[in-house]
Amino acid sequence: MSEYSGRHRPPTRAERRALERRSRLPKSFSAAYALPTAAAVTLALTAVGATAAQSSPFSGEVAEQASASLNATALLEDPQLAKDVRTEVATASRNSSGLSERRRAVADDVAESQVRAQERADRDKERTDLAAKKKPEDTQDAETTASGWVRPLASGPLTSGFGVRWGRLHAGVDYGASVGTPLRAMSEGTVVGAGPMSGYGIYIDVEYADGTVSRYGHLSSVAASVGQQVAAGETVAYSGNTGRSTGPHLHLEIRPGGGEPVDPTGWLTERGIL
């Protein structure tokens, strides 16, 4: 091989490798040592811009912009500023999370209110439906209610009349009725008395529009309270065998004007409900 090394001789392979090795970047500039964030690139570009602004004949606006960029870079490098920024970001994140929780809480409250309102509406509807279905029990036929009065019970024989019995006045009439038979108001009126009474056991008094008071005695229970308004045919009590009684029945007294009892037979006959 010729030892000529003139300028027109092409470089050998060994020379090329040596040249390549000399042209490589130092290890400190490799990818492993490069700045890992976009902040490093921004820092570099800002520095180049500042240098260009200082050497440019347009030193006015360009120089000011470069100076502002340089100041921004300096601020980003301030550890306290970075800490403050992180604190503000964390605070904003917490506030956003708190707002979401409050919104969810409000939505839950609205949903619960709607559920409660619907439940109240359902209960009101049930009560309305029950009231609409409620009718006087065991109402009489049209002939017996034409006068606006009804018998005190749907059926039952007259077993005892008004008069002296065993040395004392039997002040009413008796109807045979098993315990628990519904007893009705004979017309529209107001309950003026109810509860236990000596001799009568459990009783109830209903006063009607003409002032007459009917008394039902020996009851098993009452179904209306004092002061309650009742309609003709409405159940006000149930027959029984309480007080001075020899068997289950209804004892009925008629007291005009709320005074002393009279024989109910004529009064009931006049109204067609004997």
UniProtKB/TrEMBL annotation:
Q: What is this protein called?
A: M23 family metallopeptidase
Record SUPFAM superfamilies: Duplicated hybrid motif
Q: Lineage from the top down?
A: Bacteria, Bacillati, Actinomycetota, Actinomycetes, Micrococcales
The alphabetized UniProt keywords are: Hydrolase
Bias (Basic and acidic residues) occurs at 12-23, 117-138
Query: Which residue stretches belong to region Disordered?
Result: 1-25, 91-152
Q: Extract one GO molecular function annotation from the record.
A: hydrolase activity
Species this protein is from: Janibacter alittae
* Top EC category: hydrolase
Specify the superkingdom.
Answer: Bacteria
Q: What is its EC number?
A: 3.4.-.-
According to the entry, every stretch annotated as the M23ase beta-sheet core domain falls at: 169-264
Q: Which residues form the signal peptide?
A: none
